[in-house]
Amino acid sequence: MSNDRLAPLDLAKTFFEALEKHDISLIERHLADDVVELIPFSNTGKPDPFYAFNGKPEVLAYLTTIVTRFSRVVLLNKRYSVDADGGTVFVQAEGDLVQAGTGTAYRNVYVFKFEIRDEQITHIDEYANPVTYSLLAGLPLG
């Protein structure tokens, strides 16, 4: 396997390292200026995304909220899959987070899809159970 084929996998790993170390600067330079992050599964049950972050500033702001709202951010049992072209990385993981201030455990199951272009992350889809998150955040369901 060539070094180029490892780059997308390394980018995905760096994304999680940044979250787990509470250091968003580790991933900042690897995000394309026009990066998009979507959280497709909504607490309403409708097909509209729960959240959509468009552009590097919005994505960085979202990632920053994760590391400020959670004192512990760990994704366990990460299973990576890279497509044959090396432009897409899928990651299955189990979240083991702790809400800052309350100490409340937050555990969810995730699938991330990273799209890579020119050695930068251009698109992230973050699939998780919206019911689990909504219960933690006190958001309405349906």
Automatic annotation (TrEMBL):
<keyword id="KW-0413">Isomerase</keyword>
<dbReference type="InterPro" id="IPR037401">
    <property type="entry name" value="SnoaL-like"/>
</dbReference>
<dbReference type="InterPro" id="IPR032710">
    <property type="entry name" value="NTF2-like_dom_sf"/>
</dbReference>
<protein>
    <submittedName>
        <fullName>Ketosteroid isomerase-like protein</fullName>
    </submittedName>
</protein>
<feature type="domain" description="SnoaL-like">
    <location>
        <begin position="13"/>
        <end position="123"/>
    </location>
</feature>
<dbReference type="Pfam" id="PF12680">
    <property type="entry name" value="SnoaL_2"/>
</dbReference>
<dbReference type="GO" id="GO:0016853">
    <property type="term" value="F:isomerase activity"/>
</dbReference>
